[in-house]
Amino acid sequence: SSAAALTMLDTSCAAMPASSGRTETRRTMNRLTERFGFCLVDGMADGSVRPLDAGIAAQLVSSMVNAAAELPAWVPGVTPENAADLYARPLFLGLFAPAVR
Question: Distance of alpha carbon 77 from its chain centroid, rounded?
């Protein structure tokens, strides 16, 4: 994964001893990130996702999934009902999209 998308998982993998499967863990995470990219490309093809760089967006989605466990620490009061609007909506609509009322 790219240095710009260093996630908690990447940090955890770096801390793993090489003999503990670090390489295989990274390969698995890269495959999963690639699958996110395929989903995004499919969404762009059918019009449900705005045109974007699928590789960069896949890294962002992967980072978001891995960081979701930490969301309550960063956003007090987050609930399952509002987490998607607060967390994933900016990825798909952009940071400056008007708020939903």
Answer: 21
